[in-house]
Every structure is written in C-alpha cells, then in structure tokens.
Design goal:
Chain B: This is ABC transporter permease. Chain B: It is found in: Cell membrane. Chain B: Belongs to the binding-protein-dependent transport system permease family. Chain B: Keywords: Cell membrane, Membrane, Peptide transport, Protein transport, Transmembrane, Transmembrane helix, Transport. Chain B: Its main location: membrane. The complex is a heterodimer of chains A (315) and B (295). In chain A, helix 5 packs antiparallel against helix 6. The longest helix of chain A has 36 residues. In chain A, 79% of the residues lie in helices and 0% in strands. Chain A has 2 domains: 72 residues, no CATH class; 221 residues, MetI-like (MetI-like fold), CATH 1.10.3720.10. With 315 residues, chain A is mainly α. Chain A starts with a helix and ends with a helix. Chain A is built from 14 helices and no strands. Chain B is an all-alpha fold and 295 residues long. Chain B has one domain: Orthogonal Bundle (MetI-like fold). Chain B is 71% helix and 1% strand. In chain B, strands 1-2 form a two-stranded antiparallel sheet. The radius of gyration of chain B is 23 Å and the shape is elongated. Classes of the chains: A mainly alpha (315), B mainly alpha (295).
C-alpha cells in the first residue's frame, strides 16, 4: 500500500513537471514576446533589451526553466502585468473564493447525485429508474452557459415580477460576503454536475444488486432496508467516490463559466482575465494551480479507491 | 466467372449492414427522440436560407419582444430582436450552421488522431504504449476548459483553431478508450489467425480490430459530439469563439446576458437551441447504448 502511494505521488510529480515544461515552452520560449507582453507594445527595442537582460532572459533555456520551477515551487510566479502586484497576492484570495463556491457545488451535486443514483439503481428498469436516467441526461445536456441565463431569467426576472421574491443576478460580493449571492452560481454548477454522478452511482448500484450475496441476503429473509444499507450501499459507493473526486476536474471548467457570468471574483474569472489580457505570469500561475488541483484529486481518487476496496487493498 | 460467384458465400454489402444496424435504433424511444432532434437541426442548418425570415445580420428595431412587428409593419419577428435589432430566430437558424459544421469536423479530427494512437498503444504495447499513455495522461490532467483557454489565447480565435484545440484536447480521451478496447480484442482468435497468415500490423489494426470496436466508439462519438458542441458554445460565450458578426449560439448568449434582467428573451432562445441539440446527441447515445447492450 505504501509503495503504491509513493508510486502514485511520483507519477503526480512527474506529470506536474512535464506540464510545467510545456507551459514554460509555450509561453516563454519567445523572449521578445515575453518582453512585449510585460512592457507593452509601445516600447522601444532598447527598453525590452534592458528588461530582458535585468531579468536574466538571455541565460540558457534549461537554466531559465530551472529557475522558474524553483520559484514556482515556493509560490513566486513573478509580478502580474495587469494588476501590478505579485501574482501570489491576488491568487490566494481568489482560490479561497472558488474553494467556497466549489465546496458547496460539490456537496450538493454529490448528495443529490448519490441519492438519486441509489434509489434508481435499487430497482433497475423501474419507472423511477427510467425517470432518473432520462432526467439526468436532460440536465447534463444544458451547459452552464445556458443554464446560468435560464436560471437568472427565472429567479432574477420572472419570479420578482410575479411573486415579488427573487435572487440577485450578480455575485460580485461588492459589499462583503453574501450567502444569497452564492445560491445561483451553486445552483448552476449542481444542475450540470449531479446528473453524471447519479448515472455512475446508478450503474454501480445496479451492478451490486445483481450479485449473489445480495440475492442470498434477500432470500434468507433479511428486511429489504437492511440489505440495502448493510450489504449493497457499502459496495456500491466505492465507484462513485472516484467519480466524485474526478468531478472536481470538471467542476474547475464549470467554475470558469459561472464566475464569468455572475461576475464572481474567483480563480476561474482570474484565469480568464489573465488569458484575455495576455498576462503571462498570471496565466502560468493559474494553469499550474488548476493542473495541481486536478492531478492531486486524481491521485487522491486512486489512493482512496484502493483503500476503500478490500479486494485491491489486501492483494 | 460464375463459378467464382457461387463459391463466395452470400454476404450483405457493408453499406446494407450499416443501415440495418442503424435501423435498430427504432427499438429505443429515447434514441428516436434524440435522432429526431438532430435531424430537425440538420434540416434547419441545410435550409437556413429558405426557412429564416430575415438575413442573419440585417438590423431593424432593437430589443423587440417575441412576436413583434418588423420595420415594414407586416413582417413578424417571432422570437423578437436582439440589442442591435437583428432577428433572433434567423440568427439561431443560421447559427446552427456554425455548430453543425465545426462540431462534427472537430470531432472527426479528434478521432482521426486518437484512433490510430489508441490502436498503436493497445496493439503494440510496450514502450509505444507507455509513451502514448503518458502523453495522454499529461494532457488529460488539465481541466478541459483551462486547456482550451490557454490554447486559444496562444494561437488566436478562429474556426480552424477551435478545431485544432478540440482535436488536441479530445484525442487523448479517445486514445484511452480505443486502447482499452484493443487490449481486449487483440487476444481474439481472428487476430491470431491474421497474425499467422502474416498480415502486416497496420492491416490487423485497421481491418481486423477496428471494425470490431465500432460499437462503443459510435456511442462515444455521439456523447463527444454533444460535448464538443458545449465546448464550442462555451468558447463563444467566453469571447474566444468565432469572430463577429456571424451568428454563433454561445456568442449570442454572451452578447445579450447583460440585458437578462430587462429582456430575458434575447438570451433564452439561444440557450434552448444549444441545449436541445446537445440533448439530441446525448439521447441518441443513450439509445444506441441501450440497443447495443440488448443483443
């Protein structure tokens, strides 16, 4: 088990290194381009030359990469061109905001997805099962950038007009943190994400219900509820654990759209802003953080799956 | 000549078998609904010039409510007009062309790259597999949209660049699926027979293995098409899609979202259009899976 964990973490570090190399080459191999992006298009060649010289851009490429990685590991990504402050200074509060948003989205998506998946998988082929299956196909077919305007139209436009109650249409949190402004973004993310979790849970549950030990438990006269709770669920929920962990990778994509739509000051909108403004050090930092989160959750999912599944754990 | 014809056992043509296979979808009502939606949008895209009541970029009275009368007093804007006075129905109709051109093209390119990679990795195994799988893992470790944003921000936004970005981001996933299928299929007897006959590796991969992996791949292609449509829409929505003024569903949503609290209809209809098309592909995929599992 320890060897397995060590190997997974090793793969994770290797992946991060390769990703960082790709990012570095993609964004910084053209030294002249870096100078233009940092200093602006209306600078003389001489200015750019001086800046490049000062920041060690004429050193050999491997040395520059090594220095860049070294700085990145301790969280120093340089200074943001757009915000004129060190990247880490803007990055940390933004990551925290997104973590809050992502936590609630994941919590509700998992709870709803697991519940629906379990009750659908309990009786495969029943009317309830078909309803949940088709229903989750429908909700996963509405992309975030479509459900956000649709839900906004409903909660910000039609409901206030008809019943006099609605939700705020933006989540910029301009006057401090406000729970109410979090409702719509979370709703959009949950609506798109729970369907996949429900379908995967359903498949896993349906598979467990077909096994011999469930049949035995039913035939020896155990109450149905006990069979589900004690025999089926514990085995059926192993696979969804992985699904939920991997869902974080997808959530990061959805977060970008939702934060952009609701003007939520989080990590996703920061990445988008950095890309649209060619703020290269900020792009690098955001991309590294995003990939780190994705790879770390993947590793955790693998380790967790191995730990939860006794058949693998003891072999 | 005739003797030869007799000795060959009767075998239906590949096309006929494909049509018969496709006809199985009739057994799944979910799949039929999906197919109907797709056919509907395909026809709309094909006959956009005929069915659209207005040219997509012609301007009239801005922000007209659905059903409002046009400039000449007789024409009707069934879904209203946007902030520049362009007919929303016509823009949705013409926008379907963009989606139904780029999404299948991008998906096809992703398969053209991913399938050979998966075949090579699964059939050759060893170092080829290690290298290809590692590349795939690295690309798949990016959150998809982050990857798209970085690629598009680096190479610029255009139709062809979207195809390149989708190919780059989707091929590893396709490769993984194909690799998994090949690992199973390569141990079949007909593959051993072909190897014994001395058939070259490419022929075994393309003629013996690939056709037998088509079932799961067709289902995956349907799901992926739906996902690529979402991706193209998302890029348009984030301002990284096709350049204006030609209509693009994602862009239509982003252009009108600031008016959502006053004129929600301008954003709602493109949302419904794109969701319905994605739904069509997802339902078709579900139907195909159901039918293929049955026999």
């Amino acid at each position: 088990m320890l060897i397995f964990i060590a190997r997974r973490i090793g793969t994770m570090v290797l992946t991060m290194l390769v990703v960082s190399l790709i990012l570095f080459l993609l964004l910084e191999i053209n030294v002249e381009g870096v100078a233009i992006k940092v200093l602006g298009a209306f600078t003389s060649d001489q200015q750019r030359e001086i800046w490049l010289e000062e920041n060690g851009y004429f050193d050999p490429l491997p040395l520059r990469y090594a220095r860049w990685v070294g700085n990145a590991v301790v969280g120093d990504f340089g200074e943001s061109v757009r915000f004129k402050v060190p990247v880490s200074e803007i990055l940390l509060p933004r990551i925290w905001s997104t973590a809050v948003l992502g936590f609630w989205a994941l919590l509700f998506a998992s709870a709803i997805g697991l519940f629906l998946g379990v009750i659908a998988g309990m009786r495969e082929g029943s009317k309830l099962d078909r309803t949940v299956s088709v229903g989750s196909i429908v909700t996963t077919s509405v992309p975030e950038f479509a459900s956000a305007p649709l839900l906004s139209a409903l909660f910000v436009f039609y409901l206030p007009q008809t019943i006099g109650w609605g939700l705020p249409g933006t989540s910029s949190m301009s006057s401090g943190f406000d729970w109410v402004q979090l409702i719509l973004p979370v709703m959009v993310l949950v609506l798109y994400d729970f369907g996949y979790i429900a379908r995967m849970t359903r498949a896993s549950m349906a598979e467990v219900m077909m096994t011999h030990y469930i049949r035995t438990a039913v035939l020896k006269g155990l109450p149905y509820g006990t069979v589900i709770r004690k025999h089926a669920l514990r085995n059926a929920l192993i696979a969804p654990f992985t699904v939920i962990m991997l869902q974080i990778n997808w959530l990061l994509s959805g977060v970008i759209v939702v934060e952009f739509f609701f003007a939520y000051k989080g990590f996703g909108s920061l990445l988008l802003e950095a890309s649209l403004n060619q703020d290269i050090f900020l792009i690098e930092a955001c991309a590294m953080v995003a990939v780190f989160v994705a790879v770390a959750t993947q590793t955790l999912a693998d380790i967790g799956y191995t730990y939860l599944n006794p058949r693998i754990r003891f072999s | 000549m005739t003797e030869e014809a007799i000795s060959v056992p009767h075998r239906e043509s590949a096309l006929l078998r494909l049509v018969k296979g496709a006809a199985l979808i009739r057994e799944s009502w979910v799949g039929m609904v999906g197919l109907a939606i797709i056919v509907f949008w395909a026809l709309v895209a094909l006959f956009a010039d005929v069915v659209a009541p207005f040219p997509p970029n012609a301007t009239g009275i801005p922000m007209l409510a659905p059903g409002g009368a046009g400039l000449d007093g007789t024409s009707v804007h069934w879904l209203g007009t946007d902030q520049l006075g362009r007919d929303i129905l016509s823009r949705i109709i013409f926008g379907s062309r963009q989606v139904l051109l780029y999404a299948p093209l991008a998906t096809f390119c992703a398969y053209a790259v991913g399938v050979p990679m998966g075949l090579a990795a699964g059939y050759r195994r060893g170092i080829t597999d290690e290298v290809l799988s590692f590349i795939a893992n690295v690309i798949l470790s990016f959150p998809v949209l982050v990857l798209y944003i970085i690629i598009i921000a680096t190479i610029g936004a255009s139709g062809i660049n979207i195809v390149i970005a989708v190919t780059f981001a989707s091929a590893p996933g396709i490769m993984r699926i194909v690799r998994g299928l090949v690992l199973d299929l390569r141990n079949r007897e007909y593959v051993f027979a072909a190897e014994t006959r001395g058939e070259p590796a490419w022929r075994i991969m393309m003629i013996e293995i690939l056709p037998n992996a088509r079932g799961p791949l067709i289902v995956d292609a349907c799901l992926r098409l739906g996902y690529v449509i979402i991706t193209i829409g998302t890029l348009g929505f984030l301002g990284l899609g096709l350049p204006p003024p030609d209509p693009d569903w994602g862009k239509m949503i982003t252009e009108t979202r600031q008016f959502i609290t006053i004129f929600p209809h301008m954003a709602i209809f493109p949302c419904i259009a794109i969701s319905s098309l994605v739904l069509g592909f997802n339902l078709l995929a579900d139907g195909l899976r159901e039918v293929s599992l049955r026999d």
